[in-house]
Amino acid sequence: MKTNSNYQNKVNDLVSQLHEGCFLVSNNEKEINVMTIGCALIGYMWQMPMAMVLVRDTRHTKELLESSDVFTINIPKKFEMLRELEICGKASGRKVDKFEKCNFKTASTDSGAIYITGCKTVLECNIVYKQIVTSSNLRSDILNNIYSNEDYHTLYFAEITRII
Ligand SMILES: Cc1cc2nc3c(=O)[nH]c(=O)nc-3n(C[C@H](O)[C@H](O)[C@H](O)COP(=O)(O)O)c2cc1C
């Protein structure tokens, strides 16, 4: 995918929505899952438009991202889907069907990634690199604040292959 001014608008969409939350939808051959994310980066890297999301070891989402290369970042319209963001930020897909609970309608891309219909913007992502946060490489105040329980994030770097 080429970057252009439309891409810059989508960068703004993601960055301005992160404090409310966005939906990360993951899927493998057997199941789909959705969780709220408040951390992400978006930009240009390795000659590709790229996004990076951070997913903790304990998330069910992590299990799906480890068994499939595709996911979507679903950016809701401002001040919308707040109830759904709360549900998907609390309940785990191990116990709850969050799609049913939120009454989400979904669609599939040609690459087999699943997304929520009705969001403002969807980024289709293809994982190209991942890295677990390493305590010895991290500034100590962040280590103490964010990882005192040792539930580390994995950073998933992904090519943005399509914007919907
Ligand atoms: C506003 C908000 C932002 C969140 N951001 C993240 C995040 O960036 N990474 C993460 O691992 N968990 C994040 N969470 C927590 C997960 O959404 C939550 O633990 C979820 O229940 C995990 O679902 P799962 O087990 O089905 O994957 C966030 C929660 C909220 C409410």
TrEMBL record:
Superkingdom of source: Bacteria
Flavin reductase like domain span: 46-162
TM stretches of this protein: none
Molecular function via GO: FMN binding; oxidoreductase activity, acting on the CH-NH group of donors, NAD or NADP as acceptor
Record-linked InterPro entries: Flavin_Rdtase-like_dom (IPR002563), Flavoredoxin (IPR052174), Split_barrel_FMN-bd (IPR012349)
Similarity comment: family membership: Belongs to the flavoredoxin family.
Record protein name field: Flavin reductase like domain-containing protein
The species this protein was found in: Geosporobacter ferrireducens
